[in-house]
Amino acid sequence: MLITTGADVAAQTRAYNRAMAETLASLPTHYELDDPPASRAARTRGEGPFPAPERVAEGQDRTIPGRSGPVPLRIFTPPVVNGVYLHIHGGGWTLGSAADQDLHLWRLATAAKLAVVSVEYRLAPEHPYPAAPDDCEDAARWLIAGARQEFGTDRLTIGGESAGAHLAGVTLLRLGAQSAAFRAAQLTFGAFDLSMTPSQRQWGEYNLLLSTPIMAWFYDKFLPGLTAEERRRPDISPLYADLSGMPAARFVVGTQDPLLDDTLFMAARWEAAGNETTLEVVAEAAHGFLQFPLTVSERELVAQEEYLAKAVTD
Predict the structure, then answer these.
(1) The domain containing residue 288 runs over which residues?
(2) Of these residues, 154, 257, 261, 262, which one is catalytic?
């Protein structure tokens, strides 16, 4: 099912995009700095186009056993829990943190009545592929085995944004038949072909949080030394996987996102494999638009809350 939204407020979205592009043009890009630890620290301090992340008291930190050592989690448990959402953050497998979205995740937890478990997976280049997928898979298997004991329910959902959507898709594939433990996936402006879809290749240097050179830099950090053909392996690029037996999924992307084709192609293959699929394309929205002060952003946050809430109550 394809849904198109945001046309009625496209002028607002376009104006914000123009202002953001002007701001980003005055700042060095990630590939120009080429120092992921410094970029992470700057983000934490709020140096850049967005304010410093705000932590909420309701978030709790803990670790679980993983194949390569403890896997940190950030957990939000609302007063009423109807299900659990395994959240995987974005940041190009190189940046970001499970603690960067406390306000959003606590809002989601309370609105959808979901315990939210966000994975602090290992980041590249210090920990290249397959470290991040391994950590996310370990967290998913921990939830499958123990969610009822931990949260009083085994009604599970999964999702993420950008690289997080990619890792959510990879996690479901790695689970095989156990992916059926998850009732639904929310996959938001994800990267599903790390050898680059046409929209990625043709985007160019125009920076709306992403550009072709920025994506190439992320891939080189996450997948050092791999050729384009090697980057099409299903565990790396889930667009090329056998998608049969996957849970219901809701895909979302904006028309001004270099990853537009990734979502269009992945949603088509997801549905063709016989899985329940919803595809929403947001007029003029850029990559990462959920964090922007826009009408389309608020609408999408509400839509995600409703989708995930319904998945654990139907």
Answers:
(1) 2-311
(2) 257
Other C-beta atoms within 10 Å of 187: how many?
A: 29
- Catalytic, 287? Answer yes
Assess whether pLDDT exceeds 90 at residue 123: yes
Pairing assessment for the beta strands 59-64 and 71-76 based on DSSP bridges: antiparallel
- Name residue, tokens 């993983």: 66
pLDDT-above-70 percentage for the chain: 100
Interaxial angle between packed helices 295-311 and 102-112, expressed in degrees from 0 to 180 and rounded to the nearest 10: 50
Name the active-site residue from 162, 179, 195, 237. Answer: 162
Number of domains present in the structure of the chain: 1
Residue pair 109/116 in contact (Cβ under 8 Å)? The answer is yes
CATH number at residue 298: 3.40.50.1820
Q: Is 196 left (phi over 0), alpha (psi -120 to 50) or beta?
A: left
**DSSP reduced 3-state for 261:** helix
pTM given for the model: 0.97
What pLDDT is recorded for position 260? 98
- pLDDT bin (cut points 50, 70, 90) of residue 38 is confident
